[in-house]
């Protein structure tokens, strides 16, 4: 899932701010000049700072207070802790797609945005699969979609050239047509690369493969199907076989060593959601400008990695106004502005057709029209895989560590049994 940061707790105390005269359990309050204060808790970069000022200018009765945090883990731990306590949440809470299944399991504690949101708002605003993932079985809409992470493939052109592989973005598409062709190209590359790996780590590849399937770790009745879903074992065998052949750099995602790997050229390909372009540029540095390229191809079709939602917890005192703010922030016009500010890729149909998106270029990647490329990739995602309540735990705490153990020398068959056992425990 997409990396996020920590969330701070807004303390209601007279000494903290002379402007605040009252503070409720849901975060709604009145300022000294009589405006309604709405709190919104986000993480990482949503690109909303300029939008808040714009909204306040158009709604002089509203004061917006942002609780901006970093990594998603602590933010969501805070969210679930305060859900259990029954107080302390912001009026609008952002939820990343990796934690959405846990929120959907607690849907009764969130407002149905079809009920309290603007009546003229149509869910056709978003890509169908984005809305479907935040809709309960009985039709309640728990979150308004913000960004998405359509998948393409990034690669090092110079390393491909040295290994005798095609390096032009059109020519490489055949290498990335299927997972079979991807791993076959990896064999060719590692045989000629002088020790450079084909991909960064097994878990990143496995998760991308896994998320393409209609059925994942759980079926739609929340039954664990790790052992009975043949696609999961097939993916496991393919990835661990590639590890055994030396295709993995064995670098834990988002670790210091992984970050350095971009700069030193430790691996040649990277599963690449739209937001990954910024990660690559920042970690690989200016000295590698022009060496990285991105192509509008991904093995076995499209996929999505990342993206969030804005929810309105029932704890809030001003839920209708909170829903109005969330609806406005997720309108196509605002999502284009957020994209221009921080690169968050829109999930709204009209935004994906906007010239401001389609004409956007990325000079680090050879002036590729990245907006148009990822808009095309977004159109290849047919549906969002159903996620059971413990899905995120299985990905982060079970399968990723099990795959890391294979990279460290553990037998793949034994590691699979460990993963199955861990999945059964996590699903209880």
UniProtKB/TrEMBL annotation:
PROSITE patterns reported in the protein's UniProt record: PROKAR_LIPOPROTEIN
Q: Where is the signal peptide?
A: 1-22
Q: Which UniProt keywords apply?
A: Signal
Q: Looking at the keywords, is Signal present?
A: yes
Q: Mind telling me which InterPro entries this protein's record contains?
A: Bact_solute-bd_prot1 (IPR050490), SBP (IPR006059)
Acetylation recorded as keyword: no
Query: Which segments cross the bilayer?
Result: none
Which superkingdom does the taxonomy of this entry point to? Bacteria
Q: What PANTHER family has UniProt attached to this entry?
A: ARABINOSE-BINDING PROTEIN-RELATED, SUGAR BINDING SECRETED PROTEIN
Record protein name field = Carbohydrate ABC transporter substrate-binding protein
């Amino acid at each position: 899932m997409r990396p996020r940061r920590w969330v701070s707790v807004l303390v209601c105390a007279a000494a903290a701010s002379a402007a605040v005269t009252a503070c409720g359990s849901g975060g709604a309050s009145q300022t000294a000049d009589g405006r309604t204060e709405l709190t919104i808790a986000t993480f990482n970069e949503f690109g909303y700072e300029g939008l808040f000022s714009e909204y306040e200018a158009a709604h002089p009765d509203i004061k917006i207070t942002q609780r901006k945090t970093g990594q998603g883990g602590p933010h969501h731990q805070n969210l679930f802790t305060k859900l259990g306590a029954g107080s302390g949440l912001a009026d609008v809470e952002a939820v990343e797609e990796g934690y959405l299944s846990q929120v959907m399991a607690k849907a009764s504690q969130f407002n149905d945005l079809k009920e309290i949101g603007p009546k003229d708002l149509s869910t056709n605003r978003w890509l169908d699969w984005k809305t479907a993932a935040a809709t309960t079985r009985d039709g309640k809409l728990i979150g308004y979609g913000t960004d998405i992470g359509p998948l393409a493939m990034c690669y090092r052109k110079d390393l491909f050239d040295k290994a005798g592989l095609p390096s032009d973005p059109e020519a490489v598409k055949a290498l990335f047509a299927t997972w079979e062709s991807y791993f076959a190209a990896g064999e060719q590359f590692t045989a000629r690369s002088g020790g450079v790996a084909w991909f960064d780590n097994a878990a990143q590849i496995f998760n991308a493969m896994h998320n393409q399937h209609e059925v994942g770790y759980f079926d739609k009745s929340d039954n664990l199907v790790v052992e009975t879903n043949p696609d999961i074992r097939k993916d496991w065998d393919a990835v661990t076989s590639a590890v055994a052949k030396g295709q993995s750099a064995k670098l834990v995602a988002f670790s210091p060593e992984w970050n350095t790997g971009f700069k030193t050229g430790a691996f040649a390909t990277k599963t690449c959601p739209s937001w990954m372009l910024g990660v690559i540029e920042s970690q690989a540095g200016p000295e590698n400008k022009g060496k990285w390229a991105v192509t509008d191809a991904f093995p076995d079709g499209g996929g999505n990695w990342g993206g969030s939602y804005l929810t309105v917890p029932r704890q809030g005192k001003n839920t209708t106004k909170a829903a109005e703010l969330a609806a406005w922030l997720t309108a196509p016009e605002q999502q284009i502005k957020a994209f221009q500010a921080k690169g968050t890729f829109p999930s709204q149909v009209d935004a994906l057709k906007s010239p401001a998106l389609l004409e956007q270029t990325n000079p680090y990647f050879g002036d590729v029209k990245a907006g148009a490329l990822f808009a095309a990739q977004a159109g290849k995602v047919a549906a969002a895989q159903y996620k059971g309540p413990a899905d995120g735990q299985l990905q982060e705490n079970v399968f990723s560590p099990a795959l890391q153990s294979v990279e460290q020398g553990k037998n793949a068959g034994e590691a699979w049994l460990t993963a199955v056992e861990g999945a059964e425990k996590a699903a209880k």
